[in-house]
Amino acid sequence: MYDNIAVHQKVMTKSTFNMTMGAITPPTIDDRFENMLISPERVLKMLGRGKVGVVSFEQSEQGHARRRLLHVEKVAIENKRLQEKTEASYIESVNHYLHEILLGELTEQLRYTGELVQHVLNLPENVGELLDALSVKACSVSKLEPIAATMPWLYEELIAVVNTPRFRRKDSRGRIIVVESLRSALSFLGIENLRTLIPSLIIKRAMPQITDPYPLIKQKLTSYVTGVAITAKRLATLTDLNKNQAYTLAMLSNLGRCVVTRLYFKLFDKIQLHLLQECQKDKEQKRYEALLRVAPSANHLIALQQEFADAISADIMEWMRLTRLSVAEPMRACADNIPSQSKTLSKVLHQARAYTQIRMLHQLKLVEMKEVKPLLTEQNYPAGALEKLKEIDIFTLLLVKNEENH
Fold first, then answer.
1. CA 27/CA 37 separation, integer angstroms
2. The pTM is what?
């Protein structure tokens, strides 16, 4: 599924051509969004915008000085330019070779879903059991506790949340009650809050941590995941679908992005180090220096996301063997690009993704409303849905202090 030659060629072609900077044709909304997740400055370049206050070379004193150069100096500059172009071409060939190896290793690892969940995302084997238990109407603290108790990281996260000022309680003497036990934390938070919080904490644990030289990936991806989930939950209530299933589907739909991102940066460092060691052994100084100048590629990462992320998410949900939480089938439909019928979870996921992407781009002024109106119309949102979505903060989880007030 992940290792055929056609897929390899498709990914390598996408990574080379799909992110042209400053192109005459405006970049698509999808291309803008994928680049914005990595670095908003990339989108500005794609749109041909410079930073405010930056004077173009042609307008600067350097530009005027260059026009006055003697013929000999012009020749010297041109020779230097050609040399740099040749060096850049060589570096690009080394970069291409590194990424060919990376793609081969990545596609091999994608075949083993259980390994991805447990050793790439660091999630436990029984994570599906926890999500299943949360999804039933008869969910209770007594049913959740023994499952959650097998996950020390989840205990730490829940304890941290329940002891924040938002949930803090005081005894009869006004002293703050410090919650230390898992059962107390689950009880204080309440089932409805846990249905919102636990899927979010699962994604938080799965999130990529080290993404240099693109440090904003985690921040942007976290905002996107939360936005899609909250939007999906609200849309589900307007179409008589299960809001918690829609919310959880939207959260888990980004596990594939987390896998691809984590694997990409891990494999890049591993392969680059291996190739550098080979160069030292074989005394290939030129190739060694070229490898040092090769950095993780946003284009390759985006191409890998577009090709694999949704399929991986679907694989993971199927691997979880969920019996009560019906999210695997709509995720697979999304991954296979099957046209979505109205009032289905897969349609809600498409709608939530489109809305969140547009809203994030609009916040950064990377898209104009005239560009997105056709896309919003195409999604066929429920009547009044867009107006209602405008009124809420989709990037912040809504948790309440007492379950009764939910």
1. 15
2. 0.87
